[in-house]
Design goal:
The protein is α/β, with parallel strands linked by helices and about 400 residues long. The protein has two domains: about 190 residues, Rossmann fold, CATH 3.40.50.2300; about 150 residues, Response regulator (Rossmann fold). The chain contains twelve helices and 16 strands. Strands 8-7-9-10-11-15-16 form a seven-stranded mixed beta sheet, sandwiched between helices. β2, α2 and β3 form a beta-alpha-beta unit. α8 packs parallel to α9, α10 packs across α11 and α11 packs across α12. The N terminus is likely disordered.
């Protein structure tokens, strides 16, 4: 199918909150329908992705409440139908079938986890159902089909950036520990590929199941390989924080590297002082982006906490993008029209300015940063426990 390309400007929250008056499209007509526009949500509200799946649902509901308070979409309220994909392919398929076969939705926001996305995506593509994720990052999602989109930055870029950071820091011998999930495996695979391309050597590699709680035997093997650094690819904040804590307990005092999950609020609470100095390569909400900081402030006020702030912003933006496309089609069953809107849109929101989607539904215009975890006494709700060192280097 030929992909529609073009430019649709959208973005500022002040405009979006009066969504019925936003940018018009040729042939757009008001519908006589007054009932709600219904879209599905698939996030990991239980399972390894529970912490970020929960904040994604909460951010989406906050966005929906704002839109409805401002008059809805062409005068119609927006309604979410939420199902738990539990961070795995089989439960994602079950959730997808419930949303499509029982609830009759044609547009689904999600998933939290890459394995869940890769499980449901073939069904969505075959059925002509939109699957639009703000969190799933596995590189293979790029080839999942014409109805599959994401605002999450691919692990291909995360891996390149992580490999570059470690090499720039003088790391030449690397050990890795990886959760056995599509997300974590994707992070490790792309990171190692870039690190080895630059001339680095992997001297030890261990993996673990998602229900593992004691990592000390594997970590001891890795430390005995005498690496310059340890790279952690965790699906859950619990695992990420526990690995950091336990590797320090067995006496390793070398550099630690990871991705966004290892620096979540729960992970840092578990790791405590052991996480100090951990470097993570991740997308982040720019403090200069007033839309993004305002979203985080409202989220904190409403729910009393924030973890993994970029995921909050990404999930929030996805609802506003969906609302704009629904305003144009005025039909929650028109997945093809929604798809064409996504291909044409350029967006400015909580996670960045002027981003869009390429011919594979991959987000374009967002970049990663390098962050370093602060000592416990310096971690606050405002800095999320880390300081931003700058953009990821290129080599």
């Amino acid at each position: 199918m030929r992909r529609l390309r073009g430019t649709l400007l959208a973005g500022s929250l002040s405009v979006l909150l009066v969504i019925a008056g936003a940018v018009a499209c040729d042939g757009d007509e008001e519908s006589d329908e007054t009932g709600p526009l219904r879209i599905g949500v698939m996030e990991s509200v239980t399972g390894p992705g529970e912490t970020y799946g929960t904040v994604a649902v909460q951010a989406k509901q906050m966005a929906v409440d704002e839109i409805n308070a401002a008059g809805g979409i062409n005068g119609r309220p927006l309604e979410l139908v939420v199902e738990d994909e539990k961070c795995n392919a089989q439960d994602a398929i079950t959730a997808y079938q419930k949303l499509t076969d029982v609830d009759g939705v044609k547009i689904i926001l999600g998933t939290s986890c890459s394995g869940a996305m890769l499980g449901a995506a073939p069904l969505a593509e075959e059925d002509g159902v939109i699957l639009f994720s703000g969190l799933a990052t596995n590189p293979d999602i790029a080839n999942a089909g014409d109805f599959i989109f994401r605002t999450a930055i691919s692990d291909t870029q995360v891996g390149v950036d992580t490999g570059n950071v470690m090499w720039s820091d003088g790391i030449r011998r690397l050990a890795t520990i990886t959760e056995l999930t599509d997300y974590a495996e994707g992070v490790r695979r792309t990171t190692v590929a870039q690190f080895e391309t630059l001339g680095g050597e992997v001297v030890g590699a261990e993996s673990y199941a998602s229900d593992t709680t004691d990592f000390r035997t594997q970590l001891t093997k890795l430390v005995e390989a005498d690496p310059d650094a340890l790279h952690i690819a965790a699906q859950s904040e619990f695992a990420g924080g526990t690995i950091v804590k336990q590797v320090r307990e067995i006496g390793y005092d070398g550099p630690l590297y990871g991705e966004v999950v290892a620096a979540g609020t729960t992970a840092l609470e578990i790791a405590g002082d052991a996480a100090t100095g951990l470097k993570v390569i991740t997308a982040d909400i720019d403090p200069a982006n007033q839309r993004g900081t305002a979203v985080l402030s409202r989220f904190l006020e409403r729910y009393g906490y924030v973890t993994l702030p970029w995921y909050v912003g990404s999930a929030y933006d996805d609802v506003y993008i969906a609302a704009e496309c629904l305003r144009m089609t005025n039909d929650d069953q028109d997945a093809a029209g929604f798809r064409d809107c996504l291909y044409a849109i350029t967006w400015s929101g909580a996670i960045g300015e002027g981003y869009s989607f390429d011919e594979n539904g991959e987000v374009v215009g967002l970049t990663n940063i390098v962050a370093e975890v602060l000592p416990p006494a310096e971690r606050t709700a405002e800095n999320f426990g880390y300081r931003v060192l700058g953009p990821a280097p290129t080599n």
